[in-house]
Amino acid sequence: MSSRLLKPCPRSEIAMSFQPSHNPYSSPMNAPTYAGGPQAARGKLMPVGIALLVVGIFGVLFGTGYFILTLIGLQMNPELEAQRQAMGEEEKVGFYIGYYGMLAWLAFQPVGSLIVSLGSISFLRQKGRGLAMFTAILAVIPCCTSPLCGLGLPFGIWALVVLADPNVKAQMR
Q1: Is the pLDDT of residue 19 over 80?
Q2: Cβ contact 48:162 at 8 Å
Q3: What's the domain range around 62?
Q4: In whole angstroms, what separates CA 70 from the centre of its chain?
Q5: What is the pLDDT of residues 63-81, one digit of tens each?
Q6: Are 171 and 38 in contact (CB under 8 A)?
Q7: Which of 5, 73, 132, 144 is the most exposed place for a label (fewest CB within 10 A)?
Q8: Strands (E), the chain
Q9: How far is Cα 71 from Cα 91, in angstroms, rounded to an integer?
């Protein structure tokens, strides 16, 4: 028994016992597969796509109507011109910054909602992960998707969570 323990082992045997059986930096032999496949991904993407589509359409309609009503209201206000003429130079600058800033935001908001509406189609088609990600991020930004400012936030977060799912990543290209 003691002679067996003291018996020297050849160096090649020791070297072979510590070498890995495969290259750890090589590509995997088989691509990873995720449970569920296309139907599971579709089941996750459809509700999010429909919700973002509804939010986007609502934002386009509400934002466009609000923009038109604001323009009509500003043009029909008879006291507005008298107030502008009574202002000093500094007040006029502030007035015009606020006036045109509000109109610019009201003009941009339906465009953002339209982008969200069109981008939600990538959720429904299960294609265009980049566009879907851009749509979800735009929906998360307050005041880009709805004049109510917070309507797109929960749906955008939901979309980002769904897009991070490995099954959805594998299906969307």
Answers
A1: no
A2: yes
A3: 44-171
A4: 30
A5: 899 889 888 888 888 787 7
A6: yes
A7: 5
A8: none
A9: 21
Residue 139's CB: how many other CB atoms inside 10 A?
33
- The number of folded domains in the chain is 1
Say how far apart CA 155 and CA 140 lie, in whole Å: 8
Whether residue 87 lies inside any domain: the answer is yes
Find the mean pLDDT for residues 39-64. Answer: 91
How many CB atoms lie under 10 A from the CB of residue 132? 28
C-alpha dihedral sign at 90, 96, 102, 107 = negative
- What is the spatial distance between Cα 76 and Cα 78, in angstroms, rounded to a whole number? 6
Q: What angle in degrees, to the nearest 10, is found between the helix axes of 89-125 and 129-140? A: 140
CB 108 within 8 A of CB 117: no
Pairwise CA distance, residues 25 & 33, whole Å = 20
**CA-closest candidate to residue 116, choices 97, 99, 141:** 141
Q: Output Rg (C-alpha) for the chain, integer angstroms.
A: 30
* Domain assignment of residue 27, yes or no: no
Asked whether residue 13 is assigned to any structural domain, the reply reads no
31, part of any domain: no
As a whole number of Å, the end-to-end CA separation of the chain is: 64
- This prediction's pTM: 0.70
Helix (H) or strand (E) holding 106: helix 89-125
